[in-house]
């Protein structure tokens, strides 16, 4: 039987969920709903005998996050790395070309990594309901039955029933205004576009050759010239740079008649903004959503989201307000302006504010660090090193470092010395000394690092050995 290969797209940033979602940690890698990240939930959704191992397409900046979370789910998979985002069509063509080249003409299930679909069995049933139409050569889309006049989603207008559970697609519609959305809801034959597609790899490539030949040619060059490195496939930079990016909807789906739609009646949300996130979680009797170290007094239809343990958020007499508190940034906005949050990111980028894109925690393949104090001449950081992980062997030209172990056991290389430090022990690294911090245990390691020197930038690193090969 033809396999169904999940293709999980996770190259977006999700700027409408700022300040939680930023370039350094996009929403798909964050735990928005429950303990799992959205990416982990997507991986778990296709972790069954009905599906082959997933193919993940992400950016080079997020490759180690994707690899770790895939591993934490106990799943194997192939990770493709885009040199830069080119929208969804090139990513879909790349997956189809790779699968035909290495596996044969399989079915591909293209799915976003940042959607919330709580019923795993209903999701599987939905996909299987579209299998016959996809095997027959159609591109199968999945439409969510709307329960309200939503202006934030695209719509699929259904035609007559076709093969099995599928319907013909009459037309795709962009996000409507409220009056149009109400008309669509009342009509009963309009579905929200879930952005999930099932098709034969060869069928997608045939459409691409006809409708987007230049894009397909560049994608094929990028895949044929891809470099494999451990768990990653690096697309060829030069070929990928030639691509004029487009969405697969615009490049293919809206231009072909060989398309079908299967209705999905289960729970679904694209979690596109803070209203969508709050709508998936319990509210109090006044319509307030309160989470973390937050509370409210006499508020109505208000979201108070605090992800900062050290900051107490209290709303007093608020109505239709969204407030999100992180360790280093706060958003306060009218709940009716959630589609405009990306303007906040644009504003901060123009002002040169690092919080536009960078979280307080900086995630690395070995763990993460956060800056606790940053002053001229000195800086204090907290380092968290995963079990079995190690930083690169490195030196600094402009700073010295003092490491204090606050939990766990550290293995330290300092020039020709090899040291083992227990909790409450410390070591001093002089400017210019080669050094490495490692965690050779099966428990996390936490270290307080005090840096002193004339320049404390992250680019003051000379790497001699790096197990993660970050130069590639």
Strand content: 25-35%
Compute the CA-based radius of gyration.
24 Å
Helix content: 10-25%
Supply the CATH architecture of the largest domain.
Alpha-Beta Complex
**CATH class value of the largest domain:** Alpha Beta
Give the count of helical stretches: 12
The structural domain count equals 3
Widest sheet: strand order?
18-19-20-27-22-25
> Separation of termini?
38 Å
Instruction: Assign an overall shape.
Output: globular
Count of β-strands: 28
Average pLDDT value?
A: 93
Corresponding CATH superfamily of the largest domain = Spore Coat Polysaccharide Biosynthesis Protein SpsA, Chain A
Main β sheet profile: 6 strands, antiparallel
Would you tell me which CATH topology of the largest domain applies? Spore Coat Polysaccharide Biosynthesis Protein SpsA, Chain A
The low-confidence runs, each spanning 5 or more residues with pLDDT under 50, are: none
If you had to describe this structure to a student in words, what would you say it looks like?
Helix content is about 20%, strand content about 35%. It has about 475 residues and is an alpha/beta fold. The protein folds into three domains: about 260 residues, Spore Coat Polysaccharide Biosynthesis Protein SpsA, Chain A, CATH 3.90.550.10; about 70 residues, no CATH class; about 100 residues, Jelly Rolls. The strands form six sheets. Strands 18-19-20-27-22-25 form a six-stranded antiparallel beta sheet, with no helix packed on it. Strands 5-8-6-7-11 form a five-stranded mixed barrel. A hairpin with a 2-residue loop joins strand 9 and strand 10. The radius of gyration is 24 Å and the shape is globular. The mean pLDDT is about 95.
């Amino acid at each position: 039987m033809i396999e169904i290969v999940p293709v999980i797209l996770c190259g977006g940033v999700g700027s409408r969920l700022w300040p939680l979602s930023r370039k350094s940690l996009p929403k798909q890698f964050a735990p928005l709903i429950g303990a799992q990240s959205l990416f982990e939930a997507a991986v778990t959704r296709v972790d069954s005998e009905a599906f082959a191992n997933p193919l993940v397409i992400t950016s080079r900046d997020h490759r180690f996050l994707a690899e770790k979370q895939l591993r934490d789910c106990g799943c194997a998979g192939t990770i493709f790395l885009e040199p830069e985002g080119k929208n969804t069509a090139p990513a879909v063509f790349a997956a189809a070309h790779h699968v035909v080249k290495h596996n044969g003409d399989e079915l591909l299930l293209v799915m976003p990594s940042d959607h919330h679909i709580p019923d795993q069995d209903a999701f599987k049933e939905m996909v299987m309901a579209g299998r016959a139409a996809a095997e027959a050569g159609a591109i199968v889309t999945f439409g969510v039955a709307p329960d309200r006049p939503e202006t934030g989603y695209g719509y699929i207008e259904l035609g007559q029933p076709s093969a099995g559970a599928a319907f013909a697609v009459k037309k795709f519609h962009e996000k409507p205004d409220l009056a149009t959305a109400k008309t669509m809801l009342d009509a009963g034959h309009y579905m929200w576009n879930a952005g999930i597609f099932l098709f034969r790899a060869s069928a997608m490539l045939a459409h691409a050759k006809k409708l987007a030949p230049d894009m397909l040619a560049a994608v094929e060059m990028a895949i044929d010239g891809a470099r494999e490195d451990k768990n990653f496939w690096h697309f060829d930079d030069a070929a990928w740079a030639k691509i004029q990016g487009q969405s697969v909807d615009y490049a293919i789906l809206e231009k072909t008649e060989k398309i079908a739609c299967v209705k999905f009646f289960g729970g679904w949300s694209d979690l596109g903004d803070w209203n969508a996130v709050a709508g998936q979680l319990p509210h109090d009797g006044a319509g307030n959503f309160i989470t973390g170290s937050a509370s409210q007094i006499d508020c109505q239809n208000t979201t108070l989201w605090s992800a900062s343990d050290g900051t107490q958020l209290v709303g007093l007499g608020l109505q239709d307000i969204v407030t999100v508190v992180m360790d280093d940034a706060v958003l306060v906005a009218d709940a009716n302006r959630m589609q405009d949050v990306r303007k906040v990111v644009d504003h901060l980028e123009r002002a040169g504010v690092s919080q536009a894109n960078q979280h307080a925690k900086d995630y690395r393949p070995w763990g993460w660090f956060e800056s606790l104090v940053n002053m001229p001449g000195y800086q204090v950081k907290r380092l968290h090193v995963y079990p079995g992980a190690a930083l690169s062997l490195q030196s600094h030209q402009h700073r010295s470092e003092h490491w204090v172990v606050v939990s766990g056991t550290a293995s330290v290389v300092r020039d020709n010395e090899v040291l083992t430090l227990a909790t409450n022990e410390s070591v001093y690294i002089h400017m210019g000394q080669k050094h490495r911090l490692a965690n050779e245990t099966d428990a996390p390691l936490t270290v307080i690092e005090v840096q002193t020197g004339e320049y404390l930038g992250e680019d003051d690193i000379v790497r001699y050995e790096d197990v993660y090969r970050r130069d590639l």
